[in-house]
Automatic annotation (TrEMBL):
<comment type="similarity">
    <text>Belongs to the class II aldolase/RraA-like family.</text>
</comment>
<feature type="binding site">
    <location>
        <position position="116"/>
    </location>
    <ligand>
        <name>substrate</name>
    </ligand>
</feature>
<dbReference type="GO" id="GO:0046872">
    <property type="term" value="F:metal ion binding"/>
</dbReference>
<dbReference type="GO" id="GO:0008948">
    <property type="term" value="F:oxaloacetate decarboxylase activity"/>
</dbReference>
<feature type="binding site">
    <location>
        <position position="117"/>
    </location>
    <ligand>
        <name>Mg(2+)</name>
    </ligand>
</feature>
<keyword id="KW-0479">Metal-binding</keyword>
<protein>
    <recommendedName>
        <fullName>Putative 4-hydroxy-4-methyl-2-oxoglutarate aldolase</fullName>
        <ecNumber>4.1.1.112</ecNumber>
        <ecNumber>4.1.3.17</ecNumber>
    </recommendedName>
</protein>
<dbReference type="InterPro" id="IPR036704">
    <property type="entry name" value="RraA/RraA-like_sf"/>
</dbReference>
<comment type="subunit">
    <text>Homotrimer.</text>
</comment>
<comment type="function">
    <text>Catalyzes the aldol cleavage of 4-hydroxy-4-methyl-2-oxoglutarate (HMG) into 2 molecules of pyruvate. Also contains a secondary oxaloacetate (OAA) decarboxylase activity due to the common pyruvate enolate transition state formed following C-C bond cleavage in the retro-aldol and decarboxylation reactions.</text>
</comment>
<dbReference type="GO" id="GO:0047443">
    <property type="term" value="F:4-hydroxy-4-methyl-2-oxoglutarate aldolase activity"/>
</dbReference>
<keyword id="KW-0460">Magnesium</keyword>
<dbReference type="Pfam" id="PF03737">
    <property type="entry name" value="RraA-like"/>
</dbReference>
<feature type="binding site">
    <location>
        <begin position="94"/>
        <end position="97"/>
    </location>
    <ligand>
        <name>substrate</name>
    </ligand>
</feature>
<dbReference type="InterPro" id="IPR005493">
    <property type="entry name" value="RraA/RraA-like"/>
</dbReference>
């Protein structure tokens, strides 16, 4: 599993996902996930950590989410559990899984499916970020089963490999390929610096177009 230094994670938390998404695209790949995967826990803060991946598929069998439970109990602190269920209209995450994740020091969860127990999660674990397509009370048992752990998955139209960096805030979720972490951080930091200069120019001149003309960014 990719080990990402805490100072690097802190630096990613200090920039917006918009800048990170643009920085990933400068490397010739897409990083941003579909806007359908959105923050369900306002106030939890910016999420940044290496991906631990789980895949779920439809089933009529009643069985526990074995690989998801392993992802929580066996992953390193600071990991982000990423569950690909193909946009399923069921909850692949809930209050008990959040309790286990908090106990293990997991940084957050990103779900291409639903979450339940949102009131409980926000009340008892307000600093734990959950991103999903929606909230829904339906369990996965008898509907979906886990089939893989730490294999490549797809969330929100983006391929995610174990160890890729996941960054998320109120704008949404971005995947940074592990091999591009340093280049993307450098680019995102520069984007933020230039945007601050551009903002000052717009405010000083009273012209949005002047700012766009000089910095070629909107």
């Amino acid at each position: 599993m990719t080990i990402i230094a805490e100072d690097v994670l802190a630096a990613f938390r200090a920039v917006s996902t918009a800048s990170v998404a643009d920085a990933v695209e400068l490397q010739g790949v897409r990083g941003y996930m579909s806007g359908g995967i959105r923050m369900q826990t306002p106030g939890a803060g910016t999420l940044a950590g290496p991906a631990v991946t789980v895949r779920e598929v439809p089933t009529e069998e009643s069985e526990p989410p074995t690989h998801a439970l392993a992802a929580i109990d066996e992953s390193d602190p600071g990991s982000v559990v990423c569950i690909d269920a193909g946009g399923a209209d069921v909850a692949v995450w809930g209050g008990l899984m959040t309790a286990g994740a908090v106990a293990r020091g997991i940084a957050g969860a990103v779900l291409d499916a639903g979450v339940r127990d949102v009131t409980e999660i926000q009340r008892d674990y307000p600093q734990f970020p959950v991103y999903s397509r929606w909230s829904v009370p339906a369990t996965t048992v008898g509907r979906y089963r886990t089939v893989s752990l730490n294999e490549p998955v797809v969330l929100g139209g983006v391929s995610v490999h174990p160890g890729d960096l996941i960054v998320a805030d109120r704008d949404g979720v971005v995947r940074v390929p592990a091999r591009l972490i340093t280049a993307v951080l450098d680019a995102a930091t520069e984007i933020e610096r230039r945007e601050r200069e551009q903002t000052r120019l717009i405010l000083d001149t009273g012209s949005l177009r002047d700012g766009l003309a000089k910095y070629n960014r909107i």
